[in-house]
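JOB MANIFEST
job_type = single_chain_structure
chain_count = 1
residues = 227
[input]
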Amino acid sequence: MNNYWVFEDVNLFSLICPHKYKGYEQDHPFISFQKGNYIYFQGDVSSTIFLVNSGKVKIGFVDDKGEEYVTAYLKKGEIFGENILLNETHRKEFAQAVEKNTSLCSVTLQQAEELLQGNKSFTTSIYKFIGLKLKKIERRYQIMLFRDTRTRIIEFIKELKEDVTGTIQLINGEILVNNPYSQGEIAKLVGTSRPTFNIIINELEKEGRIVYQKNKILLKNSFLLDS
């Protein structure tokens, strides 16, 4: 996957968002959310696909014990709530704005079908998108259930190397990976605390395996050889 939400050069945001189509944009304003606002709750009726125009959205769920688990942080150009295309009737997760002035485009199932009528490439792309997304979430659950915190963090860094655009391989064989997440966000995604995350990152740096910087992680050869 070159991009988590784009397949076979088909950009789902451009295909679905009414603002990309003449005659729709004036009657379809973006919806704004402030930091901490919920877009929908777990268990709500499913009726809309959302596309992130600006800001950031947290996706997660709460288990029977009241524990919150975060499965994704979404930025501009990414979509969520797409399971209505699989006849989902109620939300299995919550969606929450985590940055101020988060702006979303909302599209009903009927609107999506009207906009995409006759677009054969979309059908293939959206189902591949949903399938790969489910596999990614399932793999993350397996890692969280059966592996220690250090291994979960290492596996997450490996996922970044595979999923994030802008990864650069240096002449010496090392790899520079773009990291769109804060330390706190990664900690939640791997099911640990921020202090524990920092301790393990410091250990990996002292071992000469990575160099952790804001928005980037340098993967040293010793890290790559063990991957």
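[summary]
Residues 1-10 have pLDDT under 50 and may be disordered.
The longest strand covers residues 48-54.
exit_status = 0
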